[in-house]
Amino acid sequence: MLTDKYNRPIKDLRISVTDRCNFRCTYCMPLDEYAWIDRAEILTFEEIERLAAIFINLGAEKIRLTGGEPLLRRNIENLVAKLSVLPGLKDLSMTTNGSSLAEKATALKSAGLSRVNVSIDTLDPEKFKRMSKRGDLNRVLDGVFAAKSAGLNPIKINAVIERGVNDDGILDLVEFARSNGFGLRFIEFMDVGNSNHWQTSNMVSKREILDIIGSRYPIVEHGRRAGTAPSVDFEFLDGGGDVGVIASVTEPFCSSCTRARLTADGKLVTCLFSESGHDLKAMMRAGASDKELSDRIEAVWRSRTDRFSDERLEALQSATGYQPEAHKKIEMIKLGG
Ligand code: SAM
């Protein structure tokens, strides 16, 4: 089995299908102006399909389509149709802001998408607009319910919690998810990219999030799905489903990270906090064979030593502290969350 320096296999592949996004979430990539990837540099569906098959041969079992906003990629359902039939793929999912899901859900389901995560950080329409700088909550909610009607299952809501911004809406999100049968994952605010002005003081920890949930609903810990999922899951004791928290700042899970990432312009990235990637598109367009591409991915993975979030926690707990701006990272909008 292909493993990296810390014995971690490749199990998941996150594919960013575009760096474009119609939102400018303040915690992700809030800049209005941005040097977008040139369209000619974006991988075609055929190139993505080819690389996905190679990653599956190397051990990947799950693929998540993301971005940028994946539903902005024209005819994305055609890519879903190509990927969903790849031999060996066990799970094909998507993370979306949901703004076009109402129009796309049925086509995505028919094309073979199994499930979807939709980012909803608040149920307050005004606050939603402020946090996304342009999003319309009602459109997103229409999208989530369209996904449910289309049979995408499970539907999970992702919510990034920022202190003093949306931490007062945690219980509203819990009620919404419970009453509609949606999964819910709270995400600790992370220092992704270079423009979100992250500070530890703005991050609401897993402990705090659980205390707020537990103040109304008793919960019991389940642990990580398959032992390796980013989210630690908790079950409501009254049978109301479950809720998870992704605590990459306070309880990093680098030791079990089996995720490879492919940027929209075909770079293999081995950590969400990487400074650079490994250009597979250039190799492909220069005529590399599948074997050559596979050998390159294998070589990159074998030498992988990333444990950024572990190191962040060590720095946060040290006398010198942690300086997020000292480390330049690829923007999340480019490499896919
Ligand atoms: N546009 C899609 C969306 O909105 O879900 C997919 C891309 S987005 C970058 C993927 C996920 O990353 C979303 O769930 C988003 O909430 C999360 N994310 C973005 N910035 C984050 C941050 N600073 N901390 C934690 N999660 C973040």
* Count of helical regions: 11
Q: What does the average pLDDT come to? A: 96
Task: Please indicate the percent range of residues in DSSP E strands (runs of 2 or more).
Answer: 15-25%
Largest sheet strand order: 7-8-9-6-5-4-3-2-1-10-11-12
The run of helices and strands is: EHEHEHEHHEHEHEEEEEEHHHH
Describe the main β-sheet briefly: 12 strands, mixed
Shape: globular
| Distance between the first and last residues' Cα | 26 Å
Radius of gyration: 19 Å
The parts where pLDDT drops under 50 for at least 5 residues are none
Supply the helix-strand structural class.
alpha/beta
Number of strands: 12
User: Which range best describes the helical content: under 10%, 10-25%, 25-40%, 40-55%, 55-70% or over 70%?
Assistant: 25-40%
Ligand species? S-adenosylmethionine
Q: Can you offer a commentary on this structure?
A:
- There is one protein chain.
- The protein is of the alpha/beta class and 337 residues long.
- Helix content is 32%, strand content 18%.
- The chain has eleven helices and twelve strands.
- It has helices at residues 45-57, 76-84, 101-111, 125-132, 137-150, 170-180, 206-216, 280-285, 290-302, 308-316, 332-335; strands spanning 12-16, 62-66, 91-96, 115-119, 155-161, 183-188, 219-224, 231-236, 242-246, 259-262, 267-269, 278-279.
- A twelve-stranded mixed sheet has the order 7-8-9-6-5-4-3-2-1-10-11-12.
- The chain is globular.
- S-adenosylmethionine binds next to strand 3 and strand 5.
